[in-house]
Amino acid sequence: MLANFSDLFLMNFKGELAALGVAFLWALTSVIYSRLGKKIFPLAMNLSKGAIAIAMAFLTILLSGEQLLPAIDSIRFILLLLSGAVGIGVGDTAYFAALNSLGARQTLLLKTLGPPMAAIVSTIFLHEQLSYVAWVGILLTILGVAWVISERVKNATINDKLIVGVSFALLSAFTDAMGAVLSRAALAETTINSLWSAMVRLVGGVLILLLWLPMKREPVRASLKELRSGRILGIVILCAFLSTYLGFWLQQISLKFSPAAIAKSLNATSPLFVLPFAFFIGEKISLRAILGVLVAIAGMGLLFIYR
């Protein structure tokens, strides 16, 4: 009976579980990316991780015997490419730039605006209807996450660096939401392989970065010199595998099997997964952080039950 319940749960909520997997992987790599950002220019970081992840996805598809060009109409294919160009090409580059200006805590705080943006856009363009309870769940999830990561982010001095960082973080949140909705529109009611669709999105992201590259040639060139270090390149490859290869694969599964608003809300819980890592390395976890986790978990519970 327990096995049947487990199978039923996995079948009914595989989109939501995949979204939580994405959140965990992003939490695991976010601190590393914030440190790498001191040496690697955002566009170069995004381009390198994207190219590495595409190679990994392509190799996986070849070894698995899946079709390299599955049956897909041109409109859905273009939507996937646009999703990658907007959400990965522009969105991830803006995110890395925000990390460099604000740090992980403040950047993630502003990124929690992505789920309500995705909810609004998907309601307008995809006509996805969520129950009132699900909307409450989204709100609780966002509030819980915001409460956790806004701890100690007070009395910040307003300066040009802060304004630039906030602008990049808001741009990242919006483009990420748009990318999720475009991907949801392409994947809904299809049998397209999730890894293949993730690879197409990554290709779209890399293509827009290659068009952007001539305008940022010097800082990218300097970053490529840093990547010649075996240690730094190894770290980038590991992060690309975890956050981009596995992360976007799971994200495509979440967007295929759950509404965009719910998928993005659960993706936004990545700061909560940072808490165990912080505790493990000896950081003090406050009561406020624990309460924030409980609020977010309550919100996630509503999303699972009343979607």
Structure, described:
The protein is an all-alpha fold and 307 residues long. It has 14 helices and no strands. Helix 4 (74-102) packs antiparallel against helix 8. The longest helix has 29 residues, at 74-102. The two termini are 25 Å apart. The model has no long low-confidence stretch (mean pLDDT 80).
Number of DSSP helical runs: 14
Mean pLDDT: 80
Strand segment tally:
0
Tertiary shape: globular
Which class do the helix and strand fractions yield? mainly alpha
Into which percentage range does the β-strand content fall? under 5%
Oligomer: single chain
CA(first)-CA(last) distance:
25 Å
Low-confidence blocks of residues: none
Helix content: over 70%
Rg estimate, integer Å: 19 Å
Largest sheet: none
Order of helices and strands: HHHHHHHHHHHHHH
How would you summarize what this structure contains?
By secondary structure, the chain is mostly helical. It has helices at residues 2-12, 14-36, 42-64, 74-102, 104-111, 114-125, 132-149, 160-187, 194-212, 217-226, 230-257, 260-267, 270-280, 287-305.
Write the layout of secondary structure elements.
Layout: H1 2-12, H2 14-36, H3 42-64, H4 74-102, H5 104-111, H6 114-125, H7 132-149, H8 160-187, H9 194-212, H10 217-226, H11 230-257, H12 260-267, H13 270-280, H14 287-305
Helix pairs in contact: 2-11, 2-12, 2-13, 3-4, 3-9, 3-11, 4-5, 4-8, 4-9, 5-8, 6-8, 6-12, 7-12, 7-14, 9-11
